[in-house]
């Protein structure tokens, strides 16, 4: 009787661990789809608001045309703002991850600091991901309500 019980417990724990491993592999596969160079093709939001995302001091439209390089095997990357008009020219290193296949999180990495020293970052909802495009939505608080900003990415290189 004890052998049957122990066999049942072992089988149940094996099934749970395999299920968890398969979920982790599926999440990792989704995460790896983000590898490559991406360009923001458009930023959609209610234009009656002045949105300055990611503490860059630049209007959200300055991100249109920006290049994002994502390297999933070490969770690093960068984004580059191209400048022009009132938009700055800037390359910002980042550390990023995709959580549960639905949230794209990143934080800026500053010269002379380690990623773990920067505890603040951004969490955006991952939308409409395909092999060559995806969108993320940022919810920006403004006067007691949220303004949703959607960044549309297109792959430019793998």
Number of DSSP E strands: 8
Report strand order across the widest sheet.
Answer: 1-2-3-4-5-6-7-8
Regions with little confidence, pLDDT below 50 for 5+ residues:
1-25
Distance from N terminus to C terminus (CA atoms, Å) equals: 56 Å
Question: Level of helix content?
Answer: 10-25%
Q: Could you tell me the radius of gyration in angstroms? A: 20 Å
Estimate what percentage of residues fall within beta strands: 35-45%
- Helix count, per DSSP? 1
Summarize the biggest pleated sheet: 8 strands, antiparallel, barrel
The 3D shape can be described as globular
SSE order in H/E notation? HEEEEEEEE
Structural class: alpha+beta
Mean pLDDT across the residues is 82
SSE blueprint:
Blueprint: H1 2-32, E1 36-44, E2 67-71, E3 76-84, E4 87-99, E5 103-108, E6 122-127, E7 133-142, E8 145-157
Antiparallel strand pairs: 1-2, 1-8, 2-3, 3-4, 4-5, 5-6, 6-7, 7-8
Structure overview:
- With 158 residues, this protein is α+β, with helices and mostly antiparallel strands.
- 20% of the residues lie in helices and 45% in strands.
- The protein has one helix at residues 2-32; strands spanning 36-44, 67-71, 76-84, 87-99, 103-108, 122-127, 133-142, 145-157.
- The protein has an 8-stranded antiparallel beta barrel with strand order 1-2-3-4-5-6-7-8.
- A hairpin with a 5-residue loop joins strand 6 (122-127) and strand 7 (133-142).
- The longest helix is centred in the N-terminal third of the chain and has 31 residues, at 2-32.
- The chain is globular and about 40 Å long.
- Residues 1-25 have low confidence and may be disordered.
């Amino acid at each position: 009787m004890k052998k049957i019980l122990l066999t049942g417990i072992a089988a149940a724990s094996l099934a749970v661990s395999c299920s968890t491993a398969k979920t982790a592999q599926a999440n990792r596969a989704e995460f790896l789809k983000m590898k490559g160079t991406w360009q923001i093709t458009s930023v959609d939001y209610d234009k009656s608001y002045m949105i300055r995302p990611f503490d860059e001091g630049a209007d959200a439209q300055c991100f249109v045309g920006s290049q994002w390089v994502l390297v999933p095997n070490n969770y690093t990357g960068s984004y580059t703002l191209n400048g022009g008009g009132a938009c700055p020219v800037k390359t910002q290193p980042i550390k990023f991850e995709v959580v549960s296949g639905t949230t794209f999180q990143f934080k800026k990495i500053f010269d002379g600091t380690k990623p773990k020293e920067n505890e603040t970052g951004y969490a955006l909802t991952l939308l409409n991901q395909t092999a060559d495009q995806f969108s993320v939505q940022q919810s920006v608080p403004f006067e007691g309500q949220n303004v949703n900003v959607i960044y549309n990415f297109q792959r430019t290189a793998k």
